[in-house]
Predict the structure.
Amino acid sequence: MNRFIFSGLALCTFALAAPAQSQSPPVEMLIRMNVQPMPEPKPALRYQLLPELREMNPGNPIPNYLKCVLEAEASTEPDNLSKFALQQADRAARLDKADWQILLRAKTEGVYLLLPDVQKMRQLAAALQMRFRVEVNQRRFDDAIVTAKTMFAMSRHMGDHPTLIGELVGIAIATIAIGPLEEMLEQPGCPNLYWALTNLPHPFISTELGMQGERMLIQAELQDLDDASPMTPEQIKKVTTRIDKLRDLEGGNNKKKEKTTREWLNEKVKEKGYLEASRGRLIEFGMSEERLKEFPAEQVVLLDAKLDYEIRRDEAMKLLSLPTWIAINKLAAAEEAIKKDKDKSFFYFLLPAIIKVRTAQGRLEQRLALLRCVEAIRMYAAEHKGKLPEKLADVNVPLSIDPFTGKPFRYQLDGETAHLRGSPPKGQENIPVYNLHYEITVQK
Amino acid sequence: MTASLFLALAFLPAQPNPAEPVVRLTVQPMAAPKPALKYQLLPEVRELVPGNPYQGYIKCFMEQRNFYFSKAAVSERTKILSMPLDQLAKEYKDYPGNLRYADYAARLDSLDWQLTQRIQSEGLEFHAGELPALRALAIALQARLRVQAANKKFPEAIEGAKAMFKLARDLGEYPAPEANLFGISLVHLALDTFEEMLQQPGCPNLYWALTDLPSPLVELRKGLQGYATLVNNEFKPLRNDVVMTDTELEKVVSRLSGMNGLAREQAGRPPWNWRAGLEERVKSADNVRLARERLIADGVDKALAAKFSPLQVILLDERRDYELRRDERMKLLSLTPGEIDALPVGKTAKESLFQDLLPDVMGLRRSQARLEQRIALFRAIEALRMYAAEHGGKFPDTPAELTLPFPTDPMSGKPIVYELSKGSAHVRGAAPHGEEKNPEFNLHYEITIKK
């Protein structure tokens, strides 16, 4: 993973999001499941997918996760985590106070904040996934549940990371855990996890802290842009230099040569009416007219550009808490509007890829919800001599709606095979990972 | 003694007394800095940032495998640590690596090794897994210090050394003695390089910086308590409030036999048939009777004790005996080795069944005192440099001529031995009882003024 927030985020979203759209017909990701009917466990919450309070101990899980990979790093086989390292991960996942200890650094280092530990969490998750699969294969369900809890707890702890990258890695880790979990549901004798899945928090990974972190990181980058007192030419130069570095970072090596911030400023200051309009907008948003008169023109233009960025950023961020199917559509429209106005917004490049993050979050929610449906179907089959329901509504437990449509999941019974489908978000119709199709049959 | 100190000593000419090899230093006179505490060796409060240094130290290694563990990087560090300083200065103007995260970690204010719960619940297999990696960090920090010292970048070197001293001090808070010992060896690494740095022209006087260090610099208390807790956990299945079944007792015996064997092997002692020793004790009716009486005297219900099998009685009595012996050792921790040596020697009791699980308090305390002694000797050297700066490059005839306090030897509790001979000053540390011929415990610095 690249060390900086910008490119790291781009990579993460790339890893989670789907490949580019093509013109080929819709392709589904088919997951065939041959399951046993299974009633709910008694007590109903006997199995859970996150550590319960009674399992927890005081402590900070984060250094304890990192310790798991530390020993391997010092060994000749850095990619092979030992049994003891994974046991350490189990312990870490059951500590009660996650603290990434990066707040102060994030406040000062801005987008240059290093996140080497985040990538290591993925390595740990991959090793845990292997153990999870072995446990599933050997039908050691109690052990497998312990590992599932560890992985889901890790994933949630990533959700406490105050960056969007951290949260995307959290989503990725939960997705890594879901693979073996699906395999487990097919194993004879696998307990029914309907209530365990129902009992998971929603959303499983919140993006709230990451979004706040995003605001904080950019604030750190622009902290030298003073809105209280007039800036000297040296102070303005310091700000423009920092912005230039940011712009270089955003574009990477392939970026075409653009105007420097100084050149852009010179142009805007000379542009007829631009300075007055900037000043007017700042006054409109509450800045003192008297004070603004003392500010040099460059400072006024930069403050106006910053205000413009904050408005555009919040227009997108405010949509995040809406239900997925509403948020995605509105974010797509907001993104379109931003693209259209790209040339008018100097800090366009700082706007986070919110729709990608929200879509990744929705995809995880959809997958967990689909598994909940599978378990409801297994429960129904246990109560109806192995028969699958004609309609999804026939199951007598509540089911989630499809996060991408706000409607029930698509379900169809075809003889002795049930077809359960999730719908893709708008624009992702041809991408297999957004077209999940569970084909469910009952073991004879 | 640290590897690099051994290396330095190996190149010295043969000494008249092989038990007391001389470390020869040629130094410049140097007055105290102004302000006096301009240089310090531990981060000050004004530098601290909220956070847990443990997390910071571990984070140093994330995505840094190549830097810390690749053959090329290890080989380069070895080269940096072994090259003469003047040659090092020619080849390296700066240290080839970024250790700023270690510097940051050392300035976090709330250390928590996150081990309390584990120490309270695990047994002697407890494994301090982060220590090998932290050793790699220590070596990297020493290599950086050496490059800075070679290039006479003294303020940077002292700033960088703070991370070494702080990490060492933090290791003193680790609840395992091996980590405490590692902390002690880490300070020796820094002092090895300081020996060279003090000889560099213009090196600031570190008398007050060394004087300002806490004493002891690296604690042993948590480590020994942690170890005692782990042993105690091993004894937990051995009950004195119920009659244990044969199966339960066999489980306890099997576990304790394994742990004793492991401890014995780790201490380098010859193998011993622990089970045979136990059986011998259990077979002796007198032995069992006396053990039962001791248990009752110790508060075990008489009626209940009467129901205990001979095996349970012997195991409980041996545990009681172990606890007595353990505390007899642990209580000495706050005394100087000299004070411990002066204590009357008690009569030697029969070897305990759990002898191999007893903590090596004396060995640890001597290692700690040896470090304190080396720091005291450095203080003495710096006091002499300061005196020389005020007296035309001359050393005093006796320590009484110094206006500064001349340090006490932490090993003996008496003043550091000082002698002026043919214009060179000699400072020596005292050896503890029984180590008079051990070069490790006979530090001797010969200091000459650079002309």
User: Anything to note?
Assistant: The longest strand of chain B covers residues 22-27. Residues 40-203 of chain B form one domain. The first helix of chain B runs from residue 3 to 10.
